[in-house]
Amino acid sequence: MAHLLIVEDDELLRDGLSAQLMQAGHRIDTAADGQQALQLLQTVLFDGVVLDLGLPKVDGLTVLRTLRQRLPALPVLILTARDGVEDRVAGLNAGADDYLTKPFNLDELRARLQSMLRRASLPAFGNTTTTRGAGVGQLRLDPQLPRAWLGDEAIDLTQREWALLDLLVRHSGQVVSREDVLEAWQSDPGEPGTVASNALEVYVHRLRRKLAGAPLNIRNVRGLGYMLETTAA
Ligand code: CA
Predict the structure, then answer these.
(1) Is 130 among the domain residues?
(2) How remote is the CA of residue 165 from the centroid of ligand 1, in Å?
(3) Domain span at residue 149?
(4) φ and ψ at 161, to 5 degrees?
(5) What is the CATH number of the domain that holds 145?
(6) 72 CA distance to ligand 1 centroid (A)?
(7) How far is the CA of 213 from the centre of ligand 1 (A)?
């Protein structure tokens, strides 16, 4: 059971989602606009958030950016319009862990949520066969939380960023293919095989920004994939 916040201005959809997720055993709070969502997020400790991007009063992206400042590891799944590619990229850039495009299947939403919550709560997320806490140079991946340490400076990551960086670190100096990354993201049995073709680029871009202070470079090896290399300090 998880305590979830559903932020959706469409009343029918909001009620439908609440009913489904309550039936699945979760505890649900709802907000009909961004302002209400931010108020709830300040007073209640949620395990996860389902966040529509098109919202009255305060839009979903602003809600996401605001909550990320205070709650970097809170799992957030965003809901976007089918033609909202830019919204989707902006949402992932602002720290969403996953997204669904409307209209979506409720079973898929449930599966994605389960998988997102499991990743967030289990220290063994994503990799039971390898040792957590891999590192390169001064960079160490936190084995318990989705974050990395650069020396004694913490870098907060989303679950998917963590999984991507873990893969790059464990294969540093080698090319990691797009397929390797998608496989790692999907190795979780609850994770349906639907990662947008441009999602990986978005995540790499985000990781590069977060690692800007590190003597590390994520190199784009054209046509092959990505490689983590150390740069001269
Ligand atoms: Ca909406």
Answers:
(1) no
(2) 33
(3) 135-230
(4) -60, -40
(5) 1.10.10.10
(6) 24
(7) 37
Q: Kindly give the distance from the C-alpha atom of residue 41 to the centroid of ligand 1, in angstroms, as a whole number.
A: 19
| Domains identified in the chain, total number | 2
Two tokens at 32?
A: 């009909």
Output the domain CATH number for residue 38.
3.40.50.2300
For residue 205, the CA-to-ligand 1 centroid distance in Å is 28
Q: Which residues pair with 129 in a beta bridge?
A: none
DSSP 8-state secondary structure symbol assigned to residue 161: H
| Interaxial angle between packed helices 199-210 and 178-186, expressed in degrees from 0 to 180 and rounded to the nearest 10 | 90
Whether residue 100 sits in one domain with residue 13: yes
* Token representation of residue 81: 């319009």
Clarify whether residues 120 and 175 are in a common domain. Answer: no
Bridge partners of residue 176, in order along the sequence: 226
- Give per-residue pLDDT as tens, 147-156: 888 877 889 8
Report whether 158 contacts 228 (CB < 8 A).
Answer: no
Question: For the segment 120-136, what is each residue's pLDDT rounded down to a tens digit?
Answer: 765 433 333 333 467 77
Q: Which two tokens stand for residue 206?
A: 């985000």
